[in-house]
Specification:
Blueprint: H1 4-10, H2 17-20, E1 25-32, E2 37-44, E3 47-52, E4 60-65, H3 66-74, H4 79-84, E5 89-92, H5 94-103
Parallel strand pairs: 1-4
Antiparallel strand pairs: 1-2, 2-3, 4-5
Length: about 110
């Protein structure tokens, strides 16, 4: 099972610039639990970057736990279901969070 850090570090390699088009966003992820942490995923100029920490200017914030986040990354947890059942909380621009699902390729 991958760690949260491994998942976030791999995201720029899974970025589909063509699918992103001219989309620009900065999404803050707050992953609770052992091995979690705070991560910033920024999309700008047709590229994606990831850094640890907190962003003051994030367009959206996603809060969840390690188990849910790893499950989403592995494909065993459906993001929409997790949101509807309260396992994911989103503040800010939900469209940016939804767009991120289509621009980061899965295996």
């Amino acid at each position: 099972m991958p760690t949260c850090e491994e998942i976030f570090n791999e995201m720029p390699n899974r970025f589909d610039a063509e699918a992103a088009g001219d989309w620009e966003a900065k999404v803050q992820y707050k992953i609770e639990g052992d091995g979690g942490g705070n991560w910033i995923v920024a999309v700008s100029g047709g590229a994606a970057s990831v850094s640890a920490g907190e962003a003051d200017d994030a367009s959206a914030t996603v809060e969840t736990d390690v188990e849910t986040w790893v499950g989403i990354a592995e494909g065993s947890v459906e993001p929409t279901t997790a949101f509807m059942t309260g396992k994911i909380r989103i503040q800010g621009n939900m469209a940016d969070v939804m767009k991120s699902q289509s621009v980061f390729k899965k295996d």
